[in-house]
Amino acid sequence: MKDSEKFELNRETWNKKVSVHLESEFYEMSKFTSGESSLHQYEIEALGNISNKDILHLQCHFGQDTLSLARLGARCTGVDFSEEGIKVARQLNETLSLKAQFVCCNVLDTAKFVSEKFDVVFTSYGIIGWLPDLQPWAAMISEKLKPGGFFYIVEFHPIAWMFDYTVSPPLMKYGYHQKEAIYEEYQGTYADKNSKMISREYGWNHSLGEVVTALSEAGLIISYVKEHDASPYDIFPGLVKNNNGMYELDNKMYPLIFEIKAMKNN
């Protein structure tokens, strides 16, 4: 199967996920529409004061984080390949009287659909695993940044994706440097494991070194790489809640989250 066919299957699955996720406790839509931010500690601290900044948010789903950034005074553009997700994002934008823009396209094609350049390119939590090759992704990010701008990613650690979570207990099954696509078919989604929908999707593992190298080869200067035990999301089996309200392995055997910040030269 070609990558384009895998993307299409993933897009169909994400279109189906939108209605499930809107009704889920995971996304807490009533709290969000009442004014609560969907952003978490890592990205809030890393992004800093974004008032009057131009921000490009990649793989935005139905726009909660994009709109949370807009509430902080940023001029935001969200990109996602799910038509259903973008439709909801635009509706939320109008309902909340915000001024974000939303574009429906494959993230790798962003430069074809978005002409502007940005102070910040932002992406978070469960995104690079949908991409077979990070080099065109990193090149697009570099192209969309203004001189002096920065890219920031907060993402689940690649070690966590070495496990097959469709079995219990999870089985370490996939290689850290695995190049072949991983196909999974299961009932429910990460946001609602009891949903009747069947998720069919292809994903790709990317090592931390691969991410850093792709960004560096695209001309960005790495400011930092950080790894963390604690995740804001309770999406992996057997996690325990810590004193800060975040989730981690009880034995802290490996990190669950990494952050990278990278600058574009003036």
TrEMBL record:
Does Mitochondrion show up as a keyword for this record? no
* Top-level taxon in the UniProt lineage: Bacteria
Boundaries of every Methyltransferase domain copy:
55-149
Q: Does the keyword Methyltransferase apply?
A: yes
Q: What is its EC number?
A: 2.1.-.-
Transmembrane residue ranges: none
Q: Which Pfam families has this protein been placed in?
A: Methyltransf_25 (PF13649)
**UniProt-recorded Gene Ontology molecular function terms:** methyltransferase activity
State the UniProt keywords alphabetically: Methyltransferase, Transferase
GO biological process annotation, one example? methylation
SUPFAM superfamilies in alphabetical order: S-adenosyl-L-methionine-dependent methyltransferases (SSF53335)
Database matches in PANTHER family: TRANS-ACONITATE 2-METHYLTRANSFERASE-RELATED (PTHR43861)
Q: Please report the name of this protein according to its UniProt entry.
A: Class I SAM-dependent methyltransferase
Q: Which species is listed as the source?
A: Aequorivita aurantiaca
